[in-house]
Amino acid sequence: MLERLDEQSPDALLALIKMHAADPRSDKIDLGVGVYRTDEGGTPVFEAIKRAEQQLVDEQSSKSYLGPEGDMGFVNALMPYIFGEDATMGGRIAGMQTPGGTGAVRLAAALAQKAGMTKLHMGTPSWPNHAQILGDISLEMAPFDHANPDGTANVEAVLAAIRGAGSNDGILLHGCCHNPTGVDYSDEDWAAIGDAIAETGIFPIIDTAYHGLGHGLEEDVAGLRSVLAKVPEAFIAYSCDKNFGMYRDRVGAFYILANGQETLDTAFSNANALARASWSMPPDHGAAAVRLILRDSDLTKVWKDELEQMRNRMRQVRDRLAEAGTQGSVDMVPLGIQNGLFSVLPVSKEQVAQLREDHGIYMAGSGRINIAGLTMGNIDKFIGAIAEVTG
Ligand code: PMP
Fold first, then answer.
1. Which of 190, 242, 284, 303 is catalytic?
2. Is 169 a catalytic residue?
3. In this structure, is the dihedral angle defined by the CA atoms of residues 333, 384, 342 and 222, taken in order, positive or negative?
4. Are 212 and 186 in contact (CB under 8 A)?
5. Protein residue whose Cα sits closest to atom 6 of ligand 1
6. How far is the CA of 315 from the centre of ligand 1 (A)?
7. What's the pLDDT tens digit per position in 229-273?
8. Rg, Å, the chain Cα set
9. 207 is catalytic
10. Which of 241, 304, 346, 359 shows a CA-CA span of 20 to 30 A to 99?
11. Which of 14, 97, 179, 181 has most ligand 1 atoms within 8 Å of its beta carbon, as the pocket-test mutant?
């Protein structure tokens, strides 16, 4: 039976990791893999996490099953950070823990489909797994251009997608720090998007995987909150894997906004059933550590300081790139106003290959770079290489 399967191409980024590891050059630069790195090039465990994990080891008394919804203390502790002071929006929001943001996106798509969604509009390029998840559950994707060639958001395209949508359509939006472009909507853009969603009734799914890595914990969810304030229903997929550095521990949450207790309860029961049928229960450890951090003001402060350091370092890298202006054929100025871990450089596949071969600079074939792969020690080499290869 298995011979009927078609070979699947391996993840391009994983192939890039292998090539980078095999490169003997000591000044090679890895801008491929999507994890934060310090100015020393490492991805250390957060101090706040270390302390919470120690507490877990010392105090956790059981590892007995929790249930498909996971650690509800974790789910609830996150809510004020995402939704604000009125963390349930008057009892209209319910959530559950998921295996990473990926689990949350998958659950959002599957539940929307179960509720009758037939098509999901999505700005492209996007995180490649968005399309893979939709393909896997056979939910039609309708792409529109997320960004303009000058590196700003294409607001007309998203508004046109919303206004032209059918009655069973949804729209997937990145809450902040768009992956891969780094191009986020302004407050005015979000206001127009929220109005258009409210007018047309298209179902919004907001994927927030980089909360706190753009401008700050409050700033990064202002757009999301402005949309939620206007709409009757929405799904929110959330990841703690970047903002708590938990990547492999798979920490995420899925939230439902509904317009009435009964609808909310019914939707939640369906999410629960879908979770039960897919992963049964989410992994506990990382979410338990995040819960301990968010319930302890000292640990919360340690975490917020660490997050701020990450944010400031990425801003410093972006500022330095923007200062470099135009290098070769690449205008670096837009990178200064973009947010988060990623941006896309307007380089060809051949130029990407040349950067790799001639300069030991590794990036995705799309030109996506991990901003945190640049340090004050290697950024000048990077800028020089861009000038040489694209000049
Ligand atoms: N959404 C987006 C836009 C992402 O970039 C990512 C992670 N790369 C995720 C969701 C999923 O994150 P996680 O690792 O928590 O599954």
1. 242
2. no
3. negative
4. no
5. 209
6. 21
7. 999 999 999 999 999 999 999 999 999 999 999 999 999 999 999
8. 21
9. yes
10. 304
11. 179
What is the amino acid identity at position 276?
R
Helix axes 47-59, 297-323, angle to 10 degrees: 150
ipTM: 0.99
User: Does pLDDT of 12 surpass 90?
Assistant: no
CA distance 298 to 334: 37
Confidence of residue 159 (pLDDT cuts 50, 70, 90): very high
Ligand 1 atom with the smallest distance to the CA of 105 is: 10
On the CB side of 85, how many CA atoms lie within 13 Å of its CA?
A: 0
- Is residue 205 a contact partner of residue 170, using CB atoms and an 8 Å limit? yes
Q: Give the span between the Cα atoms of 335 and 35, in whole angstroms.
A: 18
Structural tokens at position 225: 């909150």
